[in-house]
Design a protein that fits this description.
There is one protein chain. The protein has about 325 residues and is an alpha/beta fold. It has 12 helices and 12 strands. Helix 10 links the parallel strand 9 and strand 10. Helix 5 packs across helix 7. The chain is globular, with a radius of gyration of 21 Å.
């Protein structure tokens, strides 16, 4: 008998077909977002979960699903999974790193440019029929070329963002849990390591790319926003919760910083509606990795992890190797 798995959200048909070669697959073509109780019920008798970042894999769920052996997240982030509880239960957890680095970096730049040059705000003005004449001071924004780019979270995506700054003749400063090697700093446009506070004081444009954990909850709050230049911009393509959204809204209302570009939010998709009243913020619905080739690569990476996990192999992107010792 084939192992049984749940694919919690809709995914590419060819990925489902690939999984069906190895497993008895229960899929979700209607793309319903399961509640915690519904997800627990769906996972009864299942060996594996092809998970979506919106799925909350809590310790309670893990305890309620004793047959579960693998949780394979279709995302590079995995803050939706209680990895410690999964490890204790012998459940392997995987993610999909690397396949989305360049696409996500592209989108970080798209948000940075749109935010600095007030693209969304000016488009809304035009669409509303308010554009009557050219004016010397209409929608004045900030230059990107020649400015200082601050990257917080200098992993692979952060480094890809920094490399792109070479074409804009920018200076790069960064903050990370640990300093990069001199070789990597050189490749990232001669990036200079700074403390978080010094980076915020220095950068004209700040991009957040750090992974979420409880330790970095509200890593950027009112005190940190107060350190930034009045003309600076803030872009978040990392995870909701890294920024205190209420504090950011207050800073944007006061003009404490010039603008923000946000692809992620606290409590998404139920984000703070006060953002909608602001003209100096660019909002996108968590789409930084959303190119077709990249999303297909992510889905196939997650599928490959699940196939390996449940057919006697070691998943390529295993996050908790200690779980294998529990088997």
């Amino acid at each position: 008998m084939k192992p049984r798995i749940l694919v919690s959200r809709a995914v590419f048909p060819e990925v489902l077909a690939r999984l069906a070669e190895h497993f008895d697959v229960e899929s979700n073509p209607a793309d319903v977002i399961y509640t915690q109780a519904e997800l627990i019920a769906k996972l009864q008798g299942k060996d594996g979960l092809f998970a979506n970042p919106a799925d909350r894999i809590s310790s309670e769920l893990i305890q309620a699903c004793p047959q579960l052996k693998a949780v394979c997240n279709m995302a590079v982030g995995y803050n939706n999974v209680d990895v410690a509880a999964a490890t204790a239960a012998g459940i392997v957890v995987t993610n999909t790193p690397d396949v989305l680095n360049e696409t996500t970096a592209d989108f970080g730049w798209a948000l940075l440019m749109a935010t600095a040059r007030r693209v969304t705000e000016s488009e809304h003005h035009l669409r509303a029929g308010k554009w009557e004449k050219w004016t010397y001071d209409g929608f004045l924004g900030a230059d990107v070329h020649g400015a200082t780019l601050g990257v917080i979270g200098m992993g692979r995506i952060g480094q890809a963002i920094a490399r792109r700054s070479m074409g804009f003749d920018m200076k790069v400063v960064y903050h990370n849990r640990s300093r990069l090697s001199p070789e990597l700093e050189a490749r990232a446009n001669n990036a200079q390591y700074l403390s978080r506070e010094e980076l915020l004081r220095t950068a004209d444009h700040v991009v957040l790319v750090l992974p979420y954990s409880p330790a970095v909850h509200h890593f950027i709050g009112a005190a940190e926003l107060a350190l930034m230049k009045p003309g600076a911009t803030l872009v978040n393509i990392a995870r909701g919760g890294i920024v205190d959204d209420a504090a950011l809204i207050a800073a944007l209302k006061k003009g404490q910083i010039a603008a923000a570009g946000l692809d992620v939010f606290e409590n998404e998709p139920a984000f703070n509606p006060d953002f909608l009243a602001l003209s100096n913020v660019v909002l996108t619905p968590h789409i930084a990795s959303a190119s077709e080739p990249t999303r297909r690569a992510m889905a196939n990476c997650a599928a490959g992890n699940l196939i390996a996990a449940l057919t006697g192999g070691t998943p390529p992107n295993l996050l908790n190797p200690d779980a294998l010792k529990k088997g």
